[in-house]
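Work Package 3 (structural annotation) set out to generate three-dimensional models for the target panel prioritized at the project kickoff. During this period the team completed the workflow that converts sequence records into discrete structure tokens, so that structures can be stored uniformly alongside our sequence database. As a representative example, we reproduce one entry of 176 residues exactly as it appears in the project archive.
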Amino acid sequence: MVDVQNDFCPGGSLAVPEGNKVVPVINKLIEEFDIIVASKDWHPSQTVHFQKWPVHCVQNSKGAEFHPQLQSAKIQQVFLKGTGNKDDGYSAYEATNHNLQEYLKSKGVTEMYVTGLATDYCVRASALDAAKSGLTTYVITDAVAAVNIQPNDGEKALDEMKRAGVKLITSDKIIS
């Protein structure tokens, strides 16, 4: 689960249009998996990242918290990224508090199903890194949403992921 945080949902400082619509889908999906991990943008108050983007997901702020309706109690490990002054931290594989690849390997994970925000940035980076790491990687397309700074950025990101071997799937193929 990638960055389902208040600042990326409507009303947040870097809101993904309709970002909150992924939450009910993710909540249903959570019931289908044994291992649930999540990433969070976790920026210091001063970072070069904010030269590119509005201030968002500042460490220990309300904006950095998970969406209040997200069933976050089932998350077994949270991976914090973008924690340094010069660290963008798009991919969950860039987490600084835990090593995602080592964690997944220790749990025997061979497949990763990616959900969250935003399709064209952090979901894209995390899914591409998962595929590069050797995991069979799926992006659940109705459980992600794009920023779409340029029209169709989300679709372009999905196409790029697909070309890299990431499989695209919808939640109805998973939910019992």
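The longest strand covers residues 136-145.
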